[in-house]
Amino acid sequence: MATIKVLGAGPVKRGVTQIAAQFEKDTGHRVSVEFTGAPTVRERVLAGEAVDVAVVPQSAMEEFVVQEKVTAGSRVTLGRSRMGLAIRKGAAAPDLASVESFKRAVAAADAVVVNVASSGNYVVKLLEKLGFAGEKAVKQPDTVKVMDHVASSSQNLLGAGQLPEIRELVDKGVAIALAGPLPDELQSVTGYDAAVTRAATQAAAAAEFTRYLSTPAARAAMAATGID
């Protein structure tokens, strides 16, 4: 039996990890799952690291296809994630139901904390579009650091992130609360794909795993974590 190395990014971590555990029971293969920031995953895959399966936003996967870093026919879509805001646990939750109430919440906040990946870049551009100065956004390396900063600060901070990631960190006991999703008019939806890489050392087992990720049971598991 093979040991499959999965390198991924984004809010699909919880779902992929759960599916990997079931895949191990069903097939006898072992799955080593590592998740980090999307820019780091992109760099490592483009550098040719011996990863069997890459899990990334669709924009990064398109680049992998163009650069021929993934195997043709192995690409599957895991689902889509939406964005929201978190606050320090115990803080008053802002109204995020409309564009105007969202703008009032941002104006009242000392800062909006974002990551340096695509979701954070989206929020920075959104704030600029809505008329907020660039210094309104404070950057952290990844969503975990974003939420840790929100939880530990005495300031009135809003932490931006993918909804599944925020919910996972709440469940893990980070002292934050979900304020709510972005208003529909401002929402960013990110699709996530998985594929076998050209550098895979366990290509056959990796292809079996990507097919497993597209089964109805796997999709149900992803939906349960907030990936639709």
Describe the structure concisely.
With 228 residues, the protein is α/β, with parallel strands linked by helices. It has helices at 13-27, 38-46, 58-66, 99-108, 118-129, 143-152, 163-171, 203-213, 216-224, and strands spanning 3-8, 30-35, 53-57, 76-81, 83-88, 111-114, 137-139, 157-162, 176-181, 190-196. The protein is built from 9 helices and 10 strands.
Structure report:
The protein is of the alpha/beta class. The protein folds into two domains: 3-80 and 191-224, Periplasmic binding protein-like II (D-Maltodextrin-Binding Protein, domain 2), CATH 3.40.190.10; 83-186, Periplasmic binding protein-like II (D-Maltodextrin-Binding Protein, domain 2). The protein contains nine helices and ten strands. The protein has helices at 13-27, 38-46, 58-66, 99-108, 118-129, 143-152, 163-171, 203-213, 216-224; strands at 3-8, 30-35, 53-57, 76-81, 83-88, 111-114, 137-139, 157-162, 176-181, 190-196. The strands form two sheets. The chain has a five-stranded mixed β-sheet with strand order 2-1-3-10-4, sandwiched between helices. Strand 1, helix 1 (13-27) and strand 2 form a beta-alpha-beta unit. The two termini are 32 Å apart.
